[in-house]
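Page 47, continued from p. 46.
Same chain as before, 320 aa.
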Amino acid sequence: MTNKCIVTGCAGFIGSSLVDRLLADGHQVTGIDNFSTGQRRFLEGALVRPNFRLVEIDLLDLDSLKLAFAGGEMVFHLAANADVRFGTEHPRRDLEQNTIATYNVLEAMRANDIKRIAFSSTGSVYGEAAVIPTPEDAPFPVQTSLYGASKLACEGLIAAYCEGFGFQSWIFRFVSILGERYTHGHVFDFYKQLEDDPTQLRVLGNGEQRKSYLYIQDCLDAIQVAVEKATDKVNILNLGVDGYCQVNDSIGWISQTLDVQPKLEYTGGDRGWIGDNPFIFLDTKKIRSLGWAPKYSINEGVVKTVEFLRNNKWVMEARE
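Result:
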């Protein structure tokens, strides 16, 4: 892996965890964040390191981005709109913060002759897949969420820059990521509800939605292995575990960890919101063929996430 790295979304859940990993491995890291959702406290360890530089700008500011990218050798582009569920309430946000921001990242790379980019895409680009578990070359159905559509557009731009300008890319289609510094998603929402009232829990949908999750350190291991070993011009890789759980399963693990027994109130239907995919399970043979395998189960990832939230109450306050 290259020595001079740029991480967008460096104060976010995955971004800050990657920054710590890169710094520990001896890389020079420039972190970029506008702190719209990122947490400065996630960078406390990085900010005291001599090989870390923080640049506080918005990715929509292309001129500033070009200056910030000077001297970089590889970009890890993790910045994105994280509030997937509310896409229909502000349709332009996914376009701007995902697609246009990615275009700006690519242009800033081109201006600084940076040729390598790792990108956090999503398993949501498969829509409601006809093939389960879903491989990277599955036929694409109609897009079901603005988030997924915007990420697919990003993938297209990145692939076109690889062809047109000689870039090399690693595009990671994640399942949902869990673990320390997690700040968005169903475990966070359930934990917050149970903190407010441990006797009852409102569940979007019927609780039978089948989802797959990956622990953050396993995710970082996979990114590292892929960048070191996948050598195609455009490398598209699913990241996940060999399995899935129902939402009801995760409720059970959360409740057991917190030692509560809430009464469950279901909103009904087979999905939680418009664009919610009721069954996500990705085929991960491709990344496994490079020598990677997850160390933690979904159950373990959920428990570690709950323990982090319980021990870091400030995260709940920061999100309010």
